Amino acid sequence: MDEQKSNCEENDSEPTENTRACVLCNCVDRSLHGQRELRHFGSSMERATLKPSASPLPQPGNDDLSSIGFSKSPCLATLFDDSGCWVHHWCAVWSEGVKKLDNEELENVDKAVISGTQQPCEYCRRLGATIQCHAEGCLRFYHFPCSAASGSFQSMKQLVLLCPEHIDKAEELGEDAWCGVCDSVGELTDLLFCTSCGQHYHAACLEIGATPIQRAGWQCPECKVCQTCRQPGEDSKMLVCDACDKGYHTFCLQPAMDSLPTDPWKCRRCRVCAECGAPGLLLPGSVQWFDNYTVCEGCQRRRSCVCGVCGKTASPSVDLHCCSMCH
């Protein structure tokens, strides 16, 4: 396929100035990293006791792993509103010191937020990390998206995280570490964690990769939903990104697609032009992509009028021969 025309919005708009974000991972409500919904948690502190700050809370990241958390410690007054703070469900549940009460409510989320302002993540090195490795004496902390991206082991049943350094201890958790395909522990570093059901799968058993972007927010085949409408769908209508393994309905794309493409497909978040380096998210959704989504429309247009040998633009009277492979 010389030209891919599945130019879709995929709900990938940049955060606006007033977009609400999690005060731990700094991602918005409909994040692709599996943190679930944003929840409001009360605070035991009086807002009046928080020192006001002239500096606003940093704008939410664009859901890229490089923008998780905070580059510098945010002022507490910017993290809390008049009655509490906003935190993703899983970011809160997994945080060190947070307790689940009998009524399913969570306690001490505000304290976890405060501690996170000074705690860097072992994976991304940015602040806001509150999930500690369960191994005795280990002081590694992670953001929820970074937990999976780093290759750490996560047990949803026991809310236990084991960093890559101590991942061998996962075997002690029994069935929690079994692959849903081969029913064995196998290679622990190859296990993918479904952020929806908590089941683990070996990447090799599913014949997919295990890159950080695939691990973060990964959903197993049984749980995979469209990242635009958040609903499941028939396999014949679910388009899966070749790079991040996230799913999108063909009819949720803008413009919609009639059928699944035969060639590998990449969502806008995973498209990066190999020539100019422009990421798909920063280009209009109407931009067309070429060579399996590795060359943007602008660079493709320049290719067609510039000689690949001398680098000069061809005059109207000179015809350039087009390569049948890279065009």
UniProtKB/TrEMBL annotation:
It holds the Pfam family zf-HC5HC2H. InterPro entries: EPHD, Znf_FYVE_PHD, Znf_PHD, Znf_PHD-finger, Znf_RING, Znf_RING/FYVE/PHD. This is PHD-type domain-containing protein. Transmembrane segments: none annotated. It is found in: Nucleus. One of its GO terms (cellular component) is MLL3/4 complex. It comes from the Eukaryota. Residues 64-167, 176-226, 223-273 form the PHD-type domain. It comes from Cynoglossus semilaevis. GO terms for molecular function: histone H3K4 methyltransferase activity; transcription coactivator activity; zinc ion binding. Gene3D superfamilies: Zinc/RING finger domain, C3HC4 (zinc finger). GO terms for biological process: positive regulation of transcription by RNA polymerase II. Residues 179-224 form the RING-type domain. Keywords: Metal-binding, Nucleus, Repeat, Transcription, Transcription regulation, Zinc, Zinc-finger.
